[in-house]
Amino acid sequence: MKRRLVATFLMGLSLITGCSRPDRAAGPASGAGSPPEPGDWIVVRYEGEPDTLNPIISTNAMASYAQYGANNSQISEMLLRYNMEDWTFTEPLLAESYPEASEDHLVYTFTIREGVKWHDGQPFSAEDVLFSAKAAMSPLVDSAPMRSYFVELSNVEIVDGRKVRFTFAKPNFQNVWNIGSNLYIVPKHVYDAQGVLDAFTYKDMIGSKGRTDEKIKAFADQFNKHAASRAPIGTGPYKFEKWETGQEIVLVRNEDYWGTKPYLDKVLVRIINDYPAALTALKAGSVDLNPRLTTIQYAQQTSGAAFDSQFAKARYSIPSYYYIGWNLDRPFFKDKRVRQAMTMLVDRQQIIDTVRFGLGKIIAGHFNPNSPDLNPNIQPLPYDPKRAAELLDEAGWKDSNGDGIRDKDGVPFRFEFLGQAASTFVDQLMPIMKEELRKVGIDMVERRLEFNVLIETIKDHKFDGYSGAWVSGLVSDPFQLWHSSSIANKGSNYVSFRNPEADGLLEQARVEFDAEKRKQLYWRWQEIIHDEQPYTFLFVPEESAAYDKRFQGVAWLPPRPGYDLNAWFVPKGSQKYTAAQTP
């Protein structure tokens, strides 16, 4: 999936970050030996609310979790998903089989599965796939992060009833992944009931007509704010039932699902921003699964005979990292020496040890520590306030008037740092940073924003610095976050990083099918990022969860969000909820 901007700002910027493919699920399954039983509900805590449930325009990890779960199949589905035996991205889903590919890696033909229906009973077809590609690639639709994966997709067409052919202008080692897991498919009959786009080819949509035609403009406007974005219709094993803003989202099992049906009757997503309140809800029994405990909750507040008798705990990892982003267009952070100094002023090991109780590992850059593309020769910059002060002096930021604040050209080094409201991590990070910066003559002004407001503010580049996190799929392509083309139109390069050599390396890597040669390109690219420090890379976290022991079939998986509720079940004698007894 795309790095859903998902941005998971410590909860929702779902980016797409890289990582290696694990050999197996992360952690043992519980309940082995009990036969799966249909029935019961699960109440899952989300720490934030989706921005929208239109996957083409969503940039929020919570939306992705509700729509697709861990393996591209919950409300909505993708063309392909992971083979959970070896974690290769090869298993057909809405596609009937793995695609046919041309020898030059430019043409991929997918055969669409027969017998699939949308939740409203309408048949799913190749027309929906073509329509979704047209809509997503329209420059007037709010889908810039998704479009970044298809800049070289030159044509999409139906060639034979159920066959959809994708033609690229350039080869890309991730073409199949991008089509299979980054092309979000929505129902044509819902989003284009009048058939407006029928009059336009895919090439029209990405050409000049896509920007100037009045019918396309009108279509894009209604698509961006369509009512179905609050009440999605998919093809997956769960149907959308309702969404009460700020409270809950309810999914119900799709009894007409084309594939293997899940066991649970309903999935109730309870939106609880506050972490202490979420733990209280778990202990009170009004939440069954809290997939994101704080570290202190895991270490100190979830133990004892009463807790252990009802709940199980787990530790798991998904491809993600925490970071601080610096706006390179701001006068404070234009000079890389300043950005290097900012990184040297953050004691990341102290944060891991004291804030996360050891649940994390310092990183030096974008790639996951287990990725074969990680450059092992690059070490994280050290915590070194003395050297940081020297770098600030070299960059011309000195206290010229004796007021205790560094300045340059009459501008005091006083910047605004944005963080997510109701984030325990930000609560702990900001005081540490503020004090370290104060010691060297930098005044950091704190500002908190609600999650979705924070995302929009950052997408508009209206910030000096911010705290964020990226969560991803298992396949890595840094292009979405780091290429200069992703700066404009609400793309994911929020920090406005521009470097011609870095752009060129990312472009070359996309068309290099030799893994060893591609790795060398990424190694050089990481050297540039390390030198430029557009982010202060903090750490890769280890996550922790707690859930009611009545659930079995539980396994913790490497794709986000780390669990697949389609496999969870409750033995008949332990079932808690029925239609008459609701949470």
Features:
3 domains, 583 residues, Dipeptide-binding Protein, domain 3, Dipeptide-binding Protein, domain 1, four-stranded mixed β-sheet, alpha+beta, D-Maltodextrin-Binding Protein, domain 2, six-stranded mixed β-sheet, 28% helix, 18% strand
Describe this structure in words.
With about 575 residues, this protein is an alpha+beta fold. It folds into three domains: about 25-75 and about 230-315 and about 545-583, D-Maltodextrin-Binding Protein, domain 2; about 75-225, Dipeptide-binding Protein, domain 1 (Alpha-Beta Complex), CATH 3.90.76.10; about 320-540, Dipeptide-binding Protein, domain 3 (Roll). Helix content is about 30%, strand content about 20%. The chain has 19 helices and 21 strands. The chain has helices spanning about 60-70, 125-135, 145, 175-180, 190, 200-205, 210, 215-225, 275-285, 295-300, 305-310, 335-345, 350-355, 385-395, 425-440, 450-460, 480, 500-510, 515-530; strands at about 40-45, 80, 90, 100, 105-110, 155-160, 165-170, 240-245, 250-255, 265-270, 290, 310-315, 320-325, 360, 405-410, 410, 415-420, 445-450, 465-470, 535-540, 545-550. The strands form six sheets. Strands 14-20-13-19-17-18 form a six-stranded mixed sheet. The chain has a four-stranded mixed sheet with strand order 1-10-9-8, with no helix packed on it. α12 packs antiparallel against α14 and α18 (about 500-510) runs antiparallel to α19 (about 515-530). The longest helix is centred in the C-terminal third of the chain and has 18 residues, at about 515-530. Mean pLDDT is about 90; it is low at about 1-30.
